[in-house]
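re: ur question from earlier - yeah i can do the single chain one, its not a big deal. heres the input i used so u can compare w yours
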Amino acid sequence: MIYHTPVLLKESVEGLKIKPNGIYVDVTFGGGGHSREILNQLKTGKLIAFDQDEDALKNLIDDKRFLFAHHNFRFLKNFLKYYKINQVDGIIADLGVSSHHFDQPERGFSFRFEGKLDMRMNQQAKVSAADILNNYEERELLRIFWEYGELQNARTLTKAIINGRSSKTLTDIKDLVDLIMPFLPKHAEHKFLAKVFQALRIEVNREMEYLQSMLLQTIDVIKPGGRLVVLTYHSLEDRLVKNFIKSGKFEGEAEKDFYGNLKVPFVAVNRKIIIPSEKEINENNRARSAKLRIAERVL
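and the output i got, formated as tokens:
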């Protein structure tokens, strides 16, 4: 089984504008697809990769130019400092969940299988999807489904979960699917379930919080003229990346200097987002929602 087929591999690695002697970071190592392509273009340079998932350890690359940090990318600056690296020439982030995770029933990322309500990227983390469903207060669950799932009937869904868990602890994927089945919109069941599972996964792994932390660190970490390459797969994370590249912030307008000039840390390289071709989508269905943004650190 293929661990994961990288989306927009050629375009994203080209976006890094790799220097053979440069230092690069792959903050989402996974199956190592992007990392291997970067190493193919390096000579005396170095590549540091991050991944918090135990399964990623099976894909490590035996190469003296390769360093691996078995941690979440929010520790980016800490580990670069540990490796005595102040700044790098480029960072690539392939966000979202890999094919490998979706295809592992025991990880609980997909409603296609029977398994536990887990969804932890870091399997040492304490809070699982089951913990959230059974223990969060009503207002907290409502926030998750409204903000992270963008579900119009989030209130109805939340009340159903609150009522359902009062008589039965929700531990399995089937428990949740059976409970919310009556509320699924006809002809859009899969899309609705995908949003429910997305919302839970984001909360379990604190994805939005950690993404913001990592992006802010890139301002200090990437050299002037260096590149930031980010692949997103849903509107929430893409909005964060888009706003960050545009203004250096996640909300509001960019700051201006005394003369009225914008003070932004990055400038977009691709004014229009890059999306997969029809051919790539046909060959890899999970590429269909991908958006690639490339930015360059301002001199």
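Residues 189-205 form the longest helix (17 residues). not sure if urs matches, ping me
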